[in-house]
Amino acid sequence: MTLIIDGNHVAAITRKKxxxxxxxxxxxxxxxxxxxxxxxxxxxxxxxxxxxKEQDCxxxxxxxxxxxxxxxxxxxxxxxxxxxxxxxxxVHGILVQLPLxxxxxxxxxxxxxxPEKDVDGFTPExxxxxxxxxxxxxxxxxxxxxxxxxxxxxxxxxxxAVVVGRSTIVGKPQSLLLLENNATxxxxxxxxxxxxxxxxxxxxxxxxxxxxxxxDADYIKPGATVIDVGINRSDDGLVxxxxxxxASHVASAITPVPGGVGPMTRAMLVENTVTAAQKQxxxx
Length: 284
Ligand code: GUN
What we know:
Radius of gyration: 19 Å
Oligomer: single chain
Bound molecules: guanine
Largest sheet: 6 strands, parallel
Strand content: 15-25%
Distance between the termini: 52 Å
């Protein structure tokens, strides 16, 4: 029987623990944990993600400060907002939903976020610290994937993990976290030759390419664990980077889309926000 990895279940456990930490924070400090959520433009998918993140925060008792800027916002407008949030003591975490509209310099904005408040783990400081194996706020999706593997006792040590995708928000940090847990890691991307042959070597296959149903049964070694990070909108609704139906006959464990990695990304954002608040208040 193939194990269907239940991201909703593990995310609910994570939120429950976070809610206890939030209560504890309130009792110790008399304050409330705050997350600033910044959305620029009117991409409907981004609006859906942001709303779900705000709902998760509300559930655990984290206060959110909603900042929605129009598509016409300038670099100076956004930069000023980040500056204000960096110095606002009621804000412990800052989330800038990506992608930003084309005319804005995403790298400059991310680099401007105070590393202590960078609950997405996207700043050069936090990515660099992750690379060096130092304490850092780490990227939510890769962290969520590691939490799923841990929850289901899927050991990565000594295993061959193949990550398909080299994005800064998923593929690269995911590879680092797998490596840190002693997996042997291969990173594949759009220029990789004979992708199916490399994927078939994977004990743990992480699909983060952003291409609907890219990986079918031919890409999967019998008994492999398949983690699908893809969220693609199609005529059939949301589909992952993996052909779930075909892959589930070959894999020993697999994440569905939706209900796999997505809820874990949001749960780790909540957890990172709690961690950021705790650190800021212990330094105060
Ligand atoms: N866009 C797609 N995924 C993410 C994410 O995890 N965080 C942010 N801020 N934007 C995203």
